[in-house]
Specification:
This protein is of the alpha/beta class. It is built from 25 helices and 28 strands. Bound molecules: ligand MGD (2 copies), iron/sulfur cluster and molybdenum atom.
Length: 692
């Protein structure tokens, strides 16, 4: 951008898995990044970065970076390595992959494992996908975060699309439903505050009293995993009292009659019992929601980490159709905006390179089983990048047992020596966002952002794309696409012919840093219907789901581990554990850095005073949380922020930085969601006892 002697400012994008995708300005002095800041001109970033990323340059220049390629010399998990050269490392990986591909069992024995360590399109879903597709490796189902909600959205709206967050300032009622906005979507908070200053009521629906709930006008705390019942209860009241928008229902929905009949079962008294709320709260909230215009709902992925996660999202997304809230640009609901970016994903990922017959799929939310139970054929090589499964994947004991397998060849490409690295045969040093190029879409707003490398790669670090290019060359993949540069890849993604992208070129992005998709300023995605479903309408009844043997209307599916569905288990393990996003970490990223560790202090669990008293637990004491899957040690925080019967442990801490060396995912299960095969992190019963 600007250049002044030895100081320059470079345009960048925050790479992390966060709806805000901030536009950053990086100050570089003599080849060193010395500061990062939010771009003041960006309408959503508005000049600030969150506490996690505000010192990102320190992450980049941290003394703890993985600097050079390493080969394991100790036992798996021990963390003892020796330095090797890049050529040696890549030759070994290529030769292992080649011999597996040529073996009778074939390349399906190779399992890629990645998620959103970076959300950049180039570094997270281009050369890597091309490489594993062409290799014929097992296809990874990326389900660890959002796949249930995605299915809920698609079955109801037909698109990953929702209200423009910038319009929230004009809403008269805002419901923050299963989102800790101040921690995990903080740039939306300013828009909420502006609305609040204009008199808008803001309601939080969250089993935990979060720092967001503290700032709202009302906090409604349902039991975890009961949101579908709550949403259906609200619709019961709305229909019963004739508060629905009949015009909108008639013109833009299918299944209004089925839904109206179906929600009769969800009378407030019954819903109150399911959710652990007062019936009056449900009636009042329904009237308030139906009476406010515009009424906006921000929901987030936290509430779909339960057995019925997809149906929960589907149920909530029916509400704005029932009341016609979609008619206003400031009304409706927002879970994700990512479907608004019409990029050329096929050009990025080249799914056409996947061989026929198609290799099997392996679900990342069942990594433990994939490594220990799958035997047709077994996984013999694992390549991890952009993820830290030893800490973040559910059923940690099974995951670690798998990673410990002596006959498993594991490669981990990382910025830091994570828990996962400790189990690797080969560790490769990865660049951070300040050292590589990328292009970013967003899932919480409508801007594309470019990320220019601010500095040269440090030490011997290489970007993901470069490693896969070099592996592809070693495996003699002759396709042109394996020679594309990072910029060429970005251009291919942008080349899709679509009015929303018209005029948005790489040159424009480089000049300005970011660009809004070509959408009207007062964008109301479903004001005139235009849903992406097969019927083109909001599908209150879904033929597609019904044909697949699912309920056609939204249905409450109780948590797998709850009094409702597993009474005996609930007697033995009576506390429902949720482990939501920690304020100063981003999943397990930043959970090794000094500033963020100081902020989070230690792994803790919030427990209600009554539950604590029943177990003789005092505030500040060390406790053990356990169930049949595992156990971990935590500090008890005795507080009414956790409702009775629910315990809360903000996550994700590194195992090796936790007391006892075990993390919260010891307690979570490999059980999947109703649709989308998603992980069910917040559907886990535990018991807690004083540590002796
Ligand atoms: N600071 C910070 N920000 C993050 C992340 C992080 O780790 N730290 N992670 C990023 C990622 S990957 C994601 S996916 C997003 C997630 O963003 P969010 O979905 O906002 O985050 P979560 O913490 O998973 O859940 C949000 C809230 O839902 C509540 N909750 C849990 N179960 C239920 C339920 O059954 N019903 C209701 N109504 N509420 C429930 C939790 O108590 C929590 O306060 O955040 C991103 N941003
Ligand atoms: N108990 C519990 N478990 C959870 C959650 C929870 O709320 N509770 N949240 C879940 C959710 S929502 C998610 S999304 C998952 C997230 O899980 P992950 O996707 O594994 O996210 P992180 O823990 O942030 O780990 C990302 C890793 O990628 C590395 N990385 C970053 N950039 C690059 C790069 O350019 N190249 C390479 N090679 N590596 C890079 C980082 O150093 C980091 O170690 O965790 C899930 N696990
Ligand atoms: S983590 Fe989210 S809020 Fe923080 S800087 Fe990145 S995009 Fe912005
Ligand atoms: Mo996530």
């Amino acid at each position: 951008m600007s250049e002044n002697l030895n100081t320059k400012i470079v345009r960048a994008a925050c790479p992390h898995d966060c709806p805000d995708t901030c536009a950053m300005l990086v100050t570089v002095e003599e080849g060193r990044a010395v500061a990062v800041a939010g771009d003041p001109a960006h309408p959503f970033t508005r000049g600030s970065l969150c506490t996690k990323v505000a010192n990102y340059h320190e992450r980049t220049h941290s003394p703890d970076r993985v600097r050079v390629p390493l080969r394991r010399v100790g036992a798996k998990g021990e963390g003892r390595f020796e330095r090797i050269g890049w050529d040696e490392a890549l030759d070994e990986i290529a030769s292992r992959f080649r011999s597996l591909a040529e073996s009778e069992e074939g390349a399906q024995t190779i399992m890629p494992y990645s998620y959103c360590g970076t959300m950049g399109l180039v570094q997270s879903e281009s050369m890597d996908r091309r490489f594993f597709n062409r290799l014929g490796a097992s296809v990874l189902e990326r389900t660890i975060c959002a796949s249930a909600g995605t299915e809920g959205m698609l079955s109801t709206l037909g698109a990953k699309l929702g209200t423009d967050p910038e319009r929230f300032t004009d809403a008269r009622l805002i419901i923050l439903w299963g989102t800790n906005t101040i921690s995990s979507n903080v740039h939306l908070w300013r828009f909420v505050l502006e609305a609040k200053h204009k008199g808008t009521r803001v309601v939080a629906i969250d089993p935990r009293r979060t720092r967001t709930a503290d700032q709202c006008d009302e906090h409604v705390a349902p039991l975890p995993g009961t949101d579908a019942a709550l949403a259906l209860g609200l619709m019961h009241v709305i229909f019963a009292e004739g508060l629905e928008d009949r015009d909108y229902l008639a013109q833009h929905t299918v299944g209004a009659d089925e839904l109206r009949r179906h929600v009769r079962e969800y009378h407030p008294a019954r819903v109150a019992e399911i959710c652990g709320l007062e019936a009056e709260t449900i009636v009042r909230l329904a009237r308030e929601y139906a009476g406010a215009r515009p009424a906006a709902i921000r929901l987030n992925y936290g509430l779909q980490r339960h057995a019925g996660g997809a149906m929960a999202v589907r149920s909530i997304l029916c509400l704005p159709a029932v009341t016609g809230a979609w008619k206003d640009a400031a009304g409706g609901a927002l879970l994700s905006t990512s479907g608004a970016f019409p990029l050329d994903y096929d050009a990025l990922q080249r799914p056409d390179l996947i061989p026929t017959p198609r290799p099997r799929s392996l679900n990342m939310s069942r990594l433990g089983d994939a490594l220990t139970k799958v035997d047709s054929p077994p996984v013999r090589a694992l390549y991890v990048y952009n993820s830290n499964p030893a800490a973040v994947a559910p059923d940690q004991r099974a995951v670690i047992e798998g990673l410990r397998r002596e006959d498993l060849f594991t490669v981990v490409h990382e910025q830091f020596m994570t828990d996962t690295c400790d189990f690797a045969d080969i560790v490769l040093p990865a660049t951070t966002q300040l050292e590589h190029f990328d292009l970013h879409k967003a899932y919480g707003h409508f801007y594309l952002t470019v990320n220019e490398p601010a500095i040269a790669p440090l030490h011997e670090a290489k970007p993901n794309t470069e490693v896969f290019r070099q592996l592809a060359a070693r495996l003699n993949f002759t396709e042109e696409c394996f020679r594309d540069s990072d910029e060429e890849i970005a251009r291919q993604a942008l080349a899709a012919a679509h009015p929303a992208l018209e005029g948005i070129t790489l040159e424009l992005l480089r000049e300005r840093g970011w660009a809004r998709l070509n959408l009207p300023e007062e964008f109301a995605p479903f004001a005139e219907g235009k849903f992406g479903t097969p019927s083109g309408k909001c599908e209150l009844y879904s033929e597609t789901l019904a044909a697949a043997g699912m309920p056609g209307v939204p249905e409450f599916i109780p948590p797998r581990e709850s009094r409702m569905s597993a009474p005996e288990l609930a007697r033995e393990f009576p506390l429902a554990l949720i482990s939501p996003a920690a304020h100063a970490f981003l999943n397990s990223s930043f959970a090794n850095l000094p500033k963020q560790l100081r902020q989070e202090r230690a792994p803790f669990v919030e427990i209600n005073p009554r539950d604590a008293e029943a177990r003789g637990i005092q505030d500040g004491e060390r406790v053990r949380a356990f169930n049949r899957r595992g156990s971990c040690e935590l500090t008890a925080v005795v507080t009414r922020r956790a409702r009775e019967g629910v315990v809360v442990s903000p996550s994700v801490w590194w195992n090796k930085l936790s007391p006892g060396g075990a993390g919260i995912n010891q307690l979570t299960s490999q059980g999947l969601t109703d649709l989308g095969h998603g992980a069910t992190f917040y559907d886990a019963l535990v018991e807690i006892e004083k540590q002796v």
